[in-house]
User: What shape does this take?
Amino acid sequence: MSSSETKHSPLEQFEIIPLIDIKSGNLDLSVTNSSISMIITVVIITLFITFSVNTRAIVPSRLQLLSELSYDFIAQLLKDTVGNEGRKYFPFVFTIFMFVLIGNMVGMIPYSFTFTSHIIVTFALAAVVFIGVTILGFIKHGFHYFSLFIIPGLPWYMLPLLIPIEVISYLSRPISLSVRLFANMLAGHTLLKVFAGFVVSLGFAGFLPLAFIVALTGLEILIAFLQAYVFAILTCLYINDALHLH
Assistant: This one.
């Protein structure tokens, strides 16, 4: 592939570029466009929560209203899926939801970097959820947690067949959770880049793909929210399984 083809590749936007080289032996701690995007996301969330909570007006401002809606949304989600026992896990679920949501939205800004389009990032988030939920299950139930792999009322002669299936399904949770977010963000941004190339190459006739890009951008914003919601609700369901088993 020539350098010009590489430069205009739709996948160029996902390239991780070191901005500040920091190396210690074989350990690479360089600051990249991906890490900068994550820092920006954390800063936005921190400022949003801080300023919206500090107002505490009787008649809420738009910022405070948005903050309260976000709080109530996750609180209700936990109540519906886990019950009242899920309140103590609100900070964890809320943090994950906001990090994924704002990270997706930051990636919608032109010339920014979408870190949720990288499988290593989404898998790390999913692994934190998976390991945390598994530890929670063992703390709550001990070795009785293994009963999660046994379907109630199942005939004993079916156990050798279905228990391995349940174990594989359980171990695949971080994979399915991470791939779903990564694939959606990767595909959507790649499609936007492809149609953006059509706008430039078609000249005057480029208004057709431009109109499609506008519609696709709106769809991508919706998908960005939906993927954060799916990540949060699956986290809630996994917590519910760890607390209540079947």
